[in-house]
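Issue: copy button drops trailing tokens. Both records pasted manually instead:
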Amino acid sequence: MDRFIFLTTDGLSKGAVYAAFALSLVLIWRAARVVNFAQGAIAVAAAYMAFSITLHTGSYWLGFIASLVGGFILGIVVERTAMRFVGHERPLDAVIVALGVVLVLQAVLGYLYGNEFIGVDSPFSRRVITVGGIDLLSRFDLYVFAAVFLLVAGLGLLFSKTRLGLRMRASAFAPEVSRLLGVNVTRMVTLGWALAAAAGALAAMLILPGDLGLHPNAMDGVFVTAFTGAVIGGLDSPQGAVVGGLTIGLLLNYVTGYLNPLFSADLGSIAVLALLLAVLLVRPGGLFSGVAARQV
């Protein structure tokens, strides 16, 4: 029972990071109807900015802020220089351009910082807190939960309680009508990219310390896992992204903790693929695909 509790709490912590990254993918999909395959590379670039600022100032929090701001700016740059001119007639075009952005960013990062893994320090202790003899969470895990909660709550307030959020939602689901009503749809799409890139940068800052370390390709695996969570939840549903990310985190921990030792093999990826296939067979649009998507 103790092992189950630890695997659950640790899985929720990891799943929260996947949820944050999945949420960034959902934001771009809702804004532009594009699956941004460059999201992982953008997040890593923002994390390298944080590393540089922290290295020169000695302050993790200045680096943290720099990563969010850098991600926000990178999202604007990528949308305005590469993705804005991609048409929607052939969906594969956006995929090819995004993969080109990945190659460019990873090449630049490799040139500037090298291709060796760089260790990233955690702002809080990763020692697991024991309560009643049961291992629960570390201070860093609590920090992860708090950061992801603030992200989800902030985006929820933005889209449900502000005029800006209303404009962004209207631009995503009825762009032509929004233009007639005086909404600058192009600007709203750019803002969607910027917010999504900042959310991806946050996810990178939460998962890179200790687990992965900095490397130009560090977020590739996270992208695949988080994208799976977004598809499971439904690419049009922010709530689905959160649920999908948490589900993936729990599934990976349970499989790693219980099945891997029995079969002496890494079955996590197979379990995630099986879950994805099951959801797609039963509900192809995702578990939370209750709203009809706009057509572009």
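Record 2 (pasted manually too):
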Amino acid sequence: MKPTLRIAFVGFGHVGRRFADLLRGPFGRALRAAGVRPIVTGIATARHGTAVDARGLSASRAAALTRAGKPLSTLHRAPEVASVTAFIRQVPADVLIEITTLEPRTGEPATSHVAAALRRGLHVVTANKGPVAFARRRLRRLAARHGRVFLHEGAVMDGFPIFNLVERCLPGVQVLGFRGVVNATTTRILSAMEKGVGFEVALREVQQAGVSEADPRNDIDGWDAAVKACAIANALMDAQLRPQDVRRQGIAAITATDVLAARARGERLRLVARGRRVGRQVRLSVAPESLADGDLLAARADGALVLETDLMGEIGLSEGPGGVEQTAYALLADLIEISRAHRGRGVRPRRVRRSGRASG
């Protein structure tokens, strides 16, 4: 019989609900093919309360309840849980999925949630950029100390395997720098403005699609891109940077005139995140740039990233229209990796070549 993989959620927004929908179908089949039988044993939310059931609760029912704005209490089959901290301490689970709302200036409370789960002996998967940007090295060490796995493939570019690409497919390669369009909200707004759509109308369309951050100012002011830049630098360049270390400029000051003037020149305006190793330091920036039509970052895609490496030169990655389903897939991919550890095969944390200290 396949071992049971007990899954608990902290945060259950668009991504978590889509994951729950797909767990009954293709996601569940993929996990069973990986050798485990997945059950959801707990969900903790800020707005809809908490549900815990050691026998397994209906994730699809939980998704329906929260979409309708109803509490999860009807699914709860356990002693009362007083807080998220208590939930992490008590929920009968093997892995915690942390997908709370991003707080780009502190990375909390997600970072503390991840650390608490690892200390308790749970594997952790997150699509939250905060823990990767603020504490990735510390959390990876904590996971190793407790014999657990901390994975975060969904933190940047939805389900595109950026971190796994370098870890699995580019052995011995050092990432020297990167440039990328990593915030889908600003890309979609600027693309809509090229067609004559007003800024506010374009923003509402992105919000309705469920692509923007809960507070869209984090997208527009460049905070989301700054956090992602830190996540990339910390994971792929062994940096120890915080979003406050990033030279940051958003798109709030860009007008329709600016966008149309760029198009007249055969260019497109995009919010570009850049990272570069300079001596013993890694320097990061986020700012609007005017890019030639032939540039990969100017493509009509939600995200694109160019890695500069020592042994493979430049490697370009482009993602089509992304969204909650792609991010939900990233959670699945990480859970499949964890299922191997759960079945006793083990997962080795990636060892990053150290290249000196990093600063802003």
